[in-house]
Amino acid sequence: MAATTAQPMGSLPSGLGICTTAPDIFYLPELVFGGLVWILVASTHVNPPNPLGWVMFVSVFCFVMTFLWMIIFAAGGHKNSSGWAAADFAYHGLAAFFYLSAGVDLAYITFLKKPAGDFRIYQIDIAAVVFAYVATLLYFIHTILSSIRWKNF
């Protein structure tokens, strides 16, 4: 029988432990879906630039910050302090809010475009909207699980 290594109460995972614990297992899907939003929005004609600029900011910011956050946790740079648990909750809550606002902006702009011209661009915009909402859901679930971990810390 294989021995299981459970995280003791009041400790944050590090190393490969971030690939097996409940809130931290969402890092990779958040990176994948956030990166897809970034790529899909960047591959279309940015019109109007302001709302889609916000979508690009959110997707790039969250991608970079989530990657750095994952590296910090994997390297063990958090040192098991309650401040890191609170910061994890705060960051993922902010990212969920940002992605929700970006998804709404992107859906509205996509709705206004309608498939008047190139239908392929319209399909790419729809895919970006779907992936933005999936990223929102992933960040929201990560926020809930991080808040539970912070409460139990």
Automatic annotation (TrEMBL):
Q: Which residues form the MARVEL domain?
A: 18-151
Any one GO biological process:
myelination
Which GO terms of the molecular function aspect are on file?
Answer: structural constituent of myelin sheath
User: Which InterPro entries does the record cross-reference, listed alphabetically?
Assistant: MAL, Marvel, MARVEL-CKLF_proteins
Keyword Nucleus in the entry? The reply is no
One GO cellular component term, please give it.
membrane
One Pfam family per UniProt: MARVEL
Q: Where are the transmembrane segments?
A: 25-42, 54-77, 89-112, 124-145
Membrane topology of the entry: Multi-pass membrane protein
- Keyword annotations of the record: Membrane, Transmembrane, Transmembrane helix
The record's subcellular location field reads:
Membrane
What's the name of the protein? Mal, T cell differentiation protein b
Q: What is the lineage of its organism?
A: Eukaryota, Metazoa, Chordata, Craniata, Vertebrata
